[in-house]
Design brief:
Elements (H helix, E strand, L loop, with lengths): L2 H9 L3 H4 L3 H10 L1 E5 L4 E3 L8 E6 L1 E7 L5 E8 L3 E2 L1 H6 L6 E4 L3 E6 L1 H10 L1 H27 L2 H13 L9 E3 L5 H8 L3 H13 L3 E3 L4 E3 L2 H11 L4
Antiparallel strand pairs: 1-8, 2-7, 3-6, 3-8, 4-5, 4-7, 9-11, 10-11
Helix pairs in contact: 1-3, 5-6, 7-8, 7-10, 8-9
């Protein structure tokens, strides 16, 4: 297999790029560059002037900011097939957050103008980017409301519900795998590891959560959902 064909097959791991004509993929590869990052490597520094867009080919990264006291606030984990850095490429402003690699990560780095040209020529790419940004805005709005209106324990419940949703099964159970770290949840909902540990203990004692070797079983997804919606005033 030639290097060109192999590179194009790697680009196919990104759904929005998969349907591009071969010549578009070749042009993108000619302008882009491959970068590999080790766990905990910083890929983007908040407020830097970079405008490149990063497509995750392998691995996973985390979007975070740090308070003046050094406290980590986590926004999103971005895995294979997604991209990041598009906001600065679109509005030509400094980066809005730090991005660090969680595991060994391979990205295709595309210069700003090449990304904008790609989106201009391919409406499907532009629409996907818009949907991604719209989703990020909706999640941020929900988090702001949670931080403003509900307590720390309930915010942990809401985050567990979010993590459980992709693993929901027809029998009303859900599996979260791997088991989330208490520190990661604490960073997402602006609380402490101790609070997260206490909430997990309470949920386990109540029979709602069961810890297994490499996963968490939510034994009654609907009940957890009702708990979250009730404190948000959505019931």
């Amino acid at each position: 297999m030639s290097a060109t064909i192999d590179a194009q097959s790697m680009v196919d791991r990104v759904p929005v790029l998969r349907s591009l004509p071969a010549e578009e993929k070749a042009a993108l590869l000619a302008k882009g560059r491959w970068r590999r990052f080790a766990p905990q490597d910083q890929i983007i520094d908040r407020d830097d002037e970079g405008r490149d867009v990063f497509f995750v080919i392998e691995g996973c990264v985390r979007v975070v900011i740090y308070s003046l006291s050094g406290r980590e606030i986590s926004f999103d984990d971005i895995g294979e097939g997604r991209c990041f850095g598009e906001l600065a490429a679109i509005d030509n402003q400094p980066r809005s957050a730090n991005v660090i690699a969680l595991v060994d990560t391979l990205v295709l780095v595309v210069p700003q103008q090449a990304f904008l040209d790609l989106a201009t020529r391919n409406p499907a790419v532009a629409l996907t980017v818009m949907r991604s940004l719209a989703g990020a805005l909706r999640r941020a709005t929900e988090r702001i409301m949670d931080l403003s209106t509900i307590g720390a324990n309930n915010r942990v419940h809401a985050e567990i519900l979010r993590l459980a949703r992709p693993g929901l099964k027809p029998d009303n159970t859900a599996v979260i795998s791997p088991i989330p770290l208490h520190g990661d949840i604490a960073a997402r909902v602006s609380t402490t590891r101790e609070t997260v540990a206490r909430v997990f203990s309470d949920l386990t004692r109540s029979g709602l959560v069961e810890r297994r070797q490499e996963s968490l079983l939510i034994k009654d997804f609907r009940r957890l959902s009702d708990m979250v919606h009730e404190v948000r005033g959505e019931m």
